[in-house]
Specification:
The chain is 75% helix and 0% strand. The chain is mainly α. Helix 3 packs antiparallel against helix 18. The mean pLDDT is 90. Pfam families: MFS_1.
């Protein structure tokens, strides 16, 4: 593990000369493109539903497929990261992950479409790499903000795809492609972008501020020590509380990304482009909201210690649940849109607050902790997907139930506590980081 003095204690957005800032920018760009590919199909679902004759249950299954495999991918990536580092891991994920984006255009039945949707879901593991890389690069006084900003700007891909994919589809139709071919070719666009991102990541990033794992790697742990570390992480109840909490925030974001376009298209009788534009507003709040959550976590940590980070997380999560309940009851578009935006702000703030806490749970196994907590987001989306596949339950009622669940989960944040020694260590590192400005 790098010493605290080698990590950046400031985020200099227009500085591309340091390893920390190159990792910062390339990690959020890579995650943005992964998100673009991961949910590129979502705003086109009304067209695909009609072409393939999909039922509500089948659409629900596709939603679950898109996020369920990510649970296992994130757990595996967390283990891999601690061994080979983020640079190589991200390079492989970006390039290999682009393959199902090209292949999904070959689907002509529900079954084949489901298989490719499952494969695409593995791209979601990119989040863990992004958080791991920024955690290695930034000091405790800004790590929450760095994690939240790279993840938030990456999550912008979810809003971007809602707006852009219908436009790409419409452009292809305008060029003479029939609708059944246009959506297939449209999915190749994020695939190509991911390939180029993989090449850039390999060329211009390093694992650590000083270099790559290969040159600066610690002595490998024995198998016995590895198992001991795994047991320690898995046996820490705080990891699983954050797993559930992240399911209640990022899980809700994934769910909305999957259903927002079709919800506004069907419930408010909007055309595909307009429904996609409104759905895109949800994701676009990532421009600032997740960063704001991370910043509040860092500020609270500076004033009240690690417990301050947790208190902010619980409060933001409570507000998320309240606005989700309110949004679910909006029957007029005039009220639904601002409530969607407010709900989005607190969803993403809660995500930022969560990963302002994660780096302090187990410093020697950051990748594994990030992987487990990150997988919680997808587990939450799977549970939510079960509601949206039920024929007897409307989408608005499903949102209402989820809002109540989020309010309940917010109370769980009180179970995330730190020992006096952990608080002392965090304070010492914070003081050292604020006194040190690496080149």
């Amino acid at each position: 593990m790098t010493t605290i003095t080698t990590k950046a204690s400031r985020i200099e957005l227009f500085n591309f000369s340091t390893a920390s800032m190159r990792a910062f920018h390339l990690s959020w760009i890579a995650f943005f493109l992964c998100f673009f590919g991961w949910f590129g199909i979502a705003p086109l679902m009304p067209i695909i539903r009609d072409e393939l004759g999909l039922s509500k249950t089948q659409i629900g299954n596709l939603m679950i497929a898109s996020v369920s495999v990510t649970i296992f991918a994130r757990l595996a990536i967390g283990w891999i990261l601690d061994r080979i580092g983020p640079r190589i891991t991200y390079t492989y994920l970006l390039i290999i992950g682009s393959i199902p984006l090209f292949l999904i255009g070959l689907s002509h039945s529900y079954e084949t479409f489901l298989i490719y949707r499952l494969a695409i879901g593995a791209i979601g593991a990119s989040f863990v790499i992004t958080q791991y890389h920024t955690t290695l690069m930034f000091a405790p006084n800004v790590v929450g903000t760095a994690n939240a900003t790279t993840a938030g700007w990456g999550n912008l891909g979810g809003g971007f795809t809602q707006i852009v994919m219908p436009l790409i589809f419409a452009g292809l139709v305008g060029l003479g492609f029939v609708e059944s071919s246009a959506w297939r070719w449209a999915m190749a666009v994020p695939g190509v972008a991911m390939v180029f991102a993989g090449i850039a990541y390999y060329r211009w990033t390093t694992d650590l501020p000083e270099g790559n794992f290969k040159e600066f790697r610690r002595v490998k742990k024995s198998e016995k020590n590895t198992q001991k570390s795994l047991k320690k992480v898995v046996g820490d109840h705080r990891v699983w509380v954050l797993f559930v909490i992240y399911g209640a925030c990022f899980g809700m974001e994934l769910t909305v990304n999957n259903v927002a376009a079709i919800y506004f298209h069907d419930y408010f009788q909007l055309d595909l482009a307009t429904a996609g534009l409104i759905a895109g507003l949800f994701g676009l709040m990532n421009l600032f909201a997740r960063s704001l959550g991370g910043l509040l976590g860092d500020r609270a940590g500076g004033k009240m210690g690690l417990k301050g980070r947790v208190l902010v997380l619980g409060g933001v999560l409570l507000l998320e649940g309240i606005f989700l309940v309110w949004f679910s009851q909006a029957s007029a578009l005039l009220f639904a849109i601002p409530l969607l935006i407010l709900f989005s702000v607190f969803v993403q703030m809660a995500e930022g607050c969560t990963f302002a806490v994660v780096p302090f749970i187990n410093r020697k196994n950051t990748g594994l902790v990030s992987g487990i907590v990150g997988a919680g987001g997808n587990a939450g989306a799977v549970m939510a997907g079960l509601l949206f596949r039920m024929d007897s339950l409307s989408y608005s009622n499903a949102f209402w139930i989820l809002g109540l669940a989020v309010i309940g989960v917010s109370v769980l944040s009180l179970a995330v506590r730190f020992s006096p020694q952990e608080e002392k260590t965090a304070l010492e590192e914070l003081q050292l980081a604020t006194l040190t400005t690496p080149n």
